[in-house]
Amino acid sequence: MDSKTLSSSIAKFSAKFCNELDKSTSVVASPLSAEYILALVALGCEGPAHEEILQSLGFPEDDAIRSSFSSMSSQLKSIKGITLNVANRVYIQDGGYKLNSALESDAIKVFDAGLKTIDFGSGKAAQEINKWVESKTNQRIKDLLTSDSVNSDTRLVLVNALYFKGTWLKPFHKMMTYDRPFYLDESTTVAIPMMSAKEEFFYGQSKDLGVQYLKMQYEGEEASMLVVLPEKVDGLNDVIKKLADGYDLLADVEALEETKVDVTIPKFKIETEIDLMEVLPKLGIKTIFEPADSGLTRMLDSGEKLFVSKGVQKAFIEVNEEGAEAAAASGMVMMMRCMPPPVPIFQADRPFLYAILDKQLTTYFVGAFRAH
Hints:
Layout: H1 3-19, E1 27-29, H2 31-42, H3 48-57, H4 62-77, E2 82-93, H5 101-109, E3 114-118, H6 125-136, E4 156-167, E5 178-183, E6 189-206, E7 211-217, E8 223-230, H7 236-244, H8 249-254, E9 257-266, E10 268-275, H9 276-282, E11 312-319, E12 323-326, E13 345-347, E14 352-358, E15 363-369
Parallel strand pairs: 2-3, 9-13
Antiparallel strand pairs: 1-15, 2-4, 4-12, 5-6, 6-7, 6-9, 7-8, 8-14, 10-11, 11-12, 14-15
Helix pairs in contact: 1-7, 2-3
Keywords: Protease inhibitor, Serine protease inhibitor
Family: Belongs to the serpin family.
InterPro entries: Serpin_CS, Serpin_dom, Serpin_fam, Serpin_sf, Serpin_sf_1, Serpin_sf_2
């Protein structure tokens, strides 16, 4: 699977994932982080469970997972100008339990995952895992697991942490930030801090999707934030649904052109906890959660039956004047008395979608801003 096909499949999964999140509030998620865990699980299961994950993630077979995620792991390490920490770890119950040798090899070579034995019945396992996640996300993600989420029956915990921090290539000036009205719906506004700039950004519109696009680059010009702003105040949920139904967002993003834009956009901070046991079954991934027959037969060397008893993601993002932190030949003709072309106005004063992408247009984080 080449990088463009991979970016496309990640974008499709991200849109479907986002479509299942709470539509009444601001959210942030990293579907890619969930994909890392699911892809590893796919290599350790068979039957319907295996088919469900491959289909949901858009991979034809296991070797496509191996080639895609090994190239993804090296791609993530090479992005310039931003901080991007990707950390994968497999925790295994102490006392004779071992990962299946083929899966252990995949975990290390494909996913760059560390392996650690732990006593899940000790009462301190959740605390130890949480401390590791905290250290990998610059202390932004705390208490990923509750103390009662692991116990002496737990055999395996898969953890993926993804942390992003970027500084804008063209920062906003703090003196240009002040409270402005943001539309919660057509008749209700709330005053929130909005940043402003008149700068060269990547900009475009889509009549089919009914949106304006703005792509702001981070230092290093290898990652960017894309803002998808619906024309209608109440248009966001329809836009997310169209994307989940297969609208090709990346084709639009590739066509954006750099132009001077008058931008107004909120500064914001969002933290979201997602129960993957609610979201994943809606995306067709159900069998791995079934105690009787989960299909997780290739995870451990022992013949013990496994199933996924908990799946959780916590995500964080902060966007301010300096940038974002998240736990992506011209010709001139001179004419006399010619008025300069009007500068497009991009005023994000209503609910919008945002994503953090790299230059291959791989989606790292996706979310919706609704001011509450």
